[in-house]
Amino acid sequence: MSSRSRRAFLSALTLVCLASSAVSNVAVQEPRPIPPRVKAWVLGASQRVKLEVVLDGTKFLAHTRQSQVPFVLWPAEKAPALEKSEPAVSAWLARSSAALGHAGLDLVFDSTSSWQQGEVWNYRVLHQGIPLFDTTFEVLWNGSTLEGLRNNLPLPLVAIEPPSADLAANKDWVYHAAATPAGNQLHLAWRVEVPDGGVGRWTRLENSAGTLRQIHSAPAASAPTDATFTEYVVPSSNFPDQIDIDSSGRVWFSQPFLNSLTSFHPESLQFRLHPTGGGTPDGLWIDPLDRVWTGLYDSNAGLGRYDIETGAYAAFAPPYAGANMAIPVYSRSNRIFVTDHAQNRLSQFDPVALTWISHESMPTPACWVVQGSEDAANQTLYFTEFNVDKLGRKPWNNPVVDIQVPLGAGPAFDVFSRGSIYYSQWNRGRLGRYVIATGEVFEYNLPLLPNEAGGPIDVTPTGQIALGTRSTGYIAMFDPGTLQFTMHAIPTPFSGLKDGLVVDPSGTVWFTESGANKLGKLTLP
Fold first, then answer.
1. Can you give the pLDDT at residue 223?
2. What is d(CA 84, CA 71) in angstroms, rounded to the nearest whole number?
3. Residue 395: what pLDDT?
4. What is the DSSP letter of 222?
5. Nearest to 513 by CA among 135, 237, 193, 143
6. What is the model's pLDDT at position 177?
7. Roughly how many angstroms between the first and final C-alpha of the chain, as a whole number?
8. Where are the beta strands (DSSP E) in 155-245?
9. Quick check: pTM over 0.85?
10. What is the DSSP letter of 179?
């Protein structure tokens, strides 16, 4: 980057301000329905504050990620009287740019695709003709009616480096978002496509400082013909969710809308409900003593424990008021670490003394801490932070320290494997990898799957990464050696795979189909 460009950037730190003060959004207290397809765009939609946003005279409701600027929006009462044509929609979006937080940006229609059987119009986001890399703006249609919008920009955005007349014409220039304490900034970079030994290619973003991003794309490996799916309809059920396996091979999953846990015996094919006494079970983890631990979400009830051997259930009150405890992780430190998305907390519980050890606020406000996995050899856990595109590193006896990963991804679930943290990207069809020893971040594109997005994740005994996708629905098996995915389409399309996937000791992948009320398994050769 030229010195002229750097000087221009330093003088442009206040060029664009998309913080909450720039958008007149008002919090809504009463619950309003959100269309299921729109809800699937944002992690934890049921716990988020809703905002009222007026777009060109029509009232919308919205959820946010990193600021008060809306992330997903849907009509509050009725859809706008909007002609379904590219010129009409483009003009409407231009008139709505201030409320959407788009000062200094342009939306240009690019393509159509689908999301959970709804038609999507995809827009490119540009500044002075230069595209913003890895950003999306989408319009979702239900027939000819606008159903929702997704505004996946690197927000809060505080500055854009202006283009310079001396940018080299032979380079593929893009904007790359970088996080700073004051907010995210857009820097000019160029894109380089590099063949990778016939196996695929690396997309690199570079500037004068070096390589900024590394994204690998490879064709899908051939799926083995002897891989088989089996699906089971869950009786008397509603929304089977997170999942784990006990020592005898029984499958357990949460059913938050029934205030119950459910077990399934793979040999007898019998399901059994286990009520949680009014608590709303969210995440689920089974410890070495065959006790099922679950966060009691939406209920201020704390942490639940179900003893599989005795059938006894107990709940442990949270150590702070207003808790919405979510996803527990059982650590080899013999502690349980449990997240609280909405309250931005991470708590430790002693399962022997049955007391809380500590609770701490996450270092980044409103980060939406989701779920963790453990690097036991180094006595450290890593947690995903959806709102702010970070991982939280939590040593057993020290505070959380944040690690920045590429903006816009929305890290959702993670798993530790062989010195790396692999994490799903809720907002993209891509798998992320953080290498603990070096601090490097790599990304791997899912092959040939437009509009698929990442969901739950686990690792097989042989080190393959199993990733569930959330649109049409696939189980994607990633080989860290070849950097290739093998794609397995779930037999029930659009089945609502959301949070639940686990690999048993034999390598079989079990998963919940929340939208189809099914339990599924993928048996690999």
1. 84
2. 22
3. 97
4. P
5. 237
6. 95
7. 51
8. 157-160, 172-178, 184-195, 201-207, 210-217, 228-233, 243-245
9. yes
10. -
Q: Which residues pair with 431 in a beta bridge?
A: 424, 444
Residue type, position 266, single letter: P
Eight-class DSSP state of 133: T
**Cα dist from 282 to 23, 131, 136, 297, 328, whole Å:** 33, 39, 30, 6, 9
Q: Where are the strands (E) in 29-90, listed by range?
A: 50-55, 58-64, 70-75
Name residues whose C-beta falls within 8 Å of residue 85's C-beta, 6 or more positions apart in sequence: none
Cβ contact 155:175 at 8 Å: no
Residues of the chain with pLDDT under 50: 1, 3-23
Cis amide linkage into residue 156, ω under 30° from 0: yes
What tokens appear for 412 in the block? 């959702």
The structure tokens listed for 443 are 């990304």
Buried b vs exposed e over 205-215: b needs ≥16 C-beta within 10 Å? bebeeeebbbb
Q: What is the DSSP letter of 474?
A: E
Identity of the residue numbered 461: P
φ/ψ (deg, to 5) at 437: -65, -35
Phi, psi of 86 (to 5 degrees): -60, -45
What is the reported pLDDT for 15? 44
Phi-psi label, residue 104: left if phi above 0, alpha if psi -120 to 50, beta otherwise: left
